[in-house]
Amino acid sequence: xxxxxxxxxxxxxxxxxxxxxxxxxxxxxxxxxxxxxxxxxxxxxxxxxxxxxxxxxxxxxxxxxxxxxxxxxxxxxxxxxxxxxxxxxxxxxxxxxxxxxxxxxxxxxxxxxxxxxxxxxxxxxxxxxxxxxxxxxxxxxxxxxxxxxxxxxxxxxxxxxxxxxxxxxxxxxxxxxxxxxxxxxxxxxxxxxxxxxxxxxxxxxxxxxxxxxxxxxxxxxxxxxxxxxxxxxxxxxxxxxxxxxxxxxxxxxxxxxxxxxxxxxxxxxxxxx
Length: 273
Prior knowledge:
single chain; mainly alpha; MetI-like fold; 11 helices; transmembrane
């Protein structure tokens, strides 16, 4: 086999490094700009001679919280937690069944679950709002959480199915041989081994619910989530307030990804087996 020349090897390394730097810059530069201008003073922000502000203030974030962003952030947390609980209550058994049992129509059912995401939300927005008003759950965190659960459920089912499929079946069979029943095998063997991947899936579900804005804007008027509140209230504000709003939205996602990065790698390792 012909060996790669040093020049070609170095060129390949430079191209890979440049692509990695471009990808990192694509993600980090908008975040850095949002953080920078979220805390800049109005004088520095509107000064045409200053590209990078040098004076900073917390006043924009405080104003945004005083306008109702703190209540909206609390609603977002409640909705996201409810979404995780509901989607895992429904999706976990389905994912385990897809991973462990062979039954007629399994592949068609998987395709149907994926197909649930084909319909744009805007098509069902008005009927959904009408239904919610009749059921009495319009403008409630539970109503938004149910809608977010419907959106997250296909993701939870397919990802948990891949995670459970990565757990060796022989360990479960050994548990049955040593006297455990099906529930005991799941709770004492399968669940602990799948826990890192499930934690990462839960965090993905949290971020999906936290960032969703359209359906939350349609289904709420007073009890809005943070993205819906910012879409309605902060878009008419000065630019530095918009940057502060962007900072408040992106901060929890960054914190959760930072905390869960080890679990995310574990999840992708399991699902790619």
